Automatic annotation (TrEMBL):
Family statement drawn from the similarity comment of this UniProt entry: Belongs to the LysR transcriptional regulatory family.
Gene: gltC_2
Designated name of the protein: HTH-type transcriptional regulator GltC
InterPro entries xref list: LysR_HTH_N, LysR_subst-bd, WH-like_DNA-bd_sf, WH_DNA-bd_sf
GO BP field: regulation of DNA-templated transcription initiation
One Pfam family recorded for the sequence: HTH_1
SUPFAM superfamilies in alphabetical order: Periplasmic binding protein-like II, Winged helix' DNA-binding domain
Annotated ranges, domain HTH lysR-type: 1-60
Organism: Vibrio mangrovi
Keywords tagged on the record: Activator, DNA-binding, Transcription, Transcription regulation
Length: 302
């Protein structure tokens, strides 16, 4: 058998460390022995897994494929161990929660605090991401639970709430908080969009097809924080939800208008990975979020 758990663990640590020297220290093995393990694995695989650089190593394309599979396998083994040990005792283990960028500031901390209070034996990691990355994270098993937009909720998803999309611009551009804007006008604004297609792209494209106008896209910027900074610097406008600028003081740095005749409410769902068996820890955290969601909404969107 080419792969076993030791080989996968060594391979993953080298990839994460980006250096045989650092990986050997983390694994508490001799660097020469680790180098032999890697060479043997590459020989068995019939391909190079790392590019050797003057100051470390980086994964080749073949290495990236193996990394993804090994990561999933090792997580599944760990979850199997925890699931077995959890029977009849307090839940333990790791749970990775993915949450859409715009919701973390208002909801993420409350969820983490509740998990720590109720389940001290569960180690919860929370990761921000856009809708595209969060969907992929469920498929490749890097996240256990996600809170994300979903146009057509999957059978496993629980709808949490809906929120309207707004055009967000520099402070003072829109006259009041009750301002509205037609999709045709949206397309004529200098728009800031993400470089990868996700919900903003889909919304703008739907406006373009309906109105027969090409959008005026001037910047492609990835990340919520970078997009908001660009808006504050008067570089353009973007489509966001008010939860993305929910803090009262932050709202003063922008102006916003609700899109009229746009039908651009987005549905936020809670979903759980189905590609591997759910551990007790995953089920408990999932249920905790559902039970406390009304309180999160009440405190976060006053």
């Amino acid at each position: 058998m080419t792969l076993d758990t030791m080989r996968m663990r060594y391979f993953l640590e080298i990839a994460r460390a980006g250096s045989l020297t650092r990986a050997a220290k983390e694994l508490h093995v001799a660097q020469s022995a680790l180098s032999l393990h890697l060479r043997s694995l590459e020989d068995d695989m019939g391909t190079s897994l790392f590019d050797r650089l003057p100051r470390g190593v980086t994964l080749t394309e073949a290495g990236k494929i193996l990394f993804s599979h090994c990561q999933s396998i090792m997580r599944a083994i760990e979850q199997a161990e925890h699931a077995t040990k959890d029977v009849g005792v307090n839940p333990t283990g790791d749970v990775i929660i993915g949450i859409i960028f715009s919701l973390f500031p208002t909801l993420g901390i409350s969820i983490l605090e509740d998990c720590k209070k109720r389940f001290p034996g569960i180690r919860v990691m929370m990761c921000e991401g856009d809708s595209k990355r969060l969907r992929e994270s469920l498929e490749n098993q890097t996240h256990d639970i996600v809170i994300m937009p979903q146009d057509i909720p999957a059978p496993t998803a629980q709808v949490l709430f809906e929120e309207s999309m707004y055009v967000i611009g520099p402070a003072g551009y829109f006259p009041s908080d009750s301002a509205t804007i037609h999709p045709r006008e949206v397309l004529q604004l200098p728009l800031i969009v993400p470089p990868e297609k996700h919900e903003i792209w889909f919304t703008i494209n739907s406006f373009s097809e309906r109105e027969g106008i090409q959008p005026n896209i001037v910047w492609r910027i990835e990340g919520l924080a970078a997009t908001k900074h660009a808006i504050r610097c008067n570089l353009g406008f973007s489509l966001l939800t008010l939860s993305a600028i929910s803090d009262g003081m932050e709202k003063e740095q922008y102006s916003f208008a609700k899109i009229s005749n746009g039908d651009v409410n987005r549905v936020i769902v809670l979903d759980m990975a189905t590609s591997h068996p759910a551990t007790r820890a995953m089920k408990e955290v999932h249920q905790l979020i559902l039970e406390n969601w009304p309180r999160y909404m009440e405190h976060s969107f006053k």
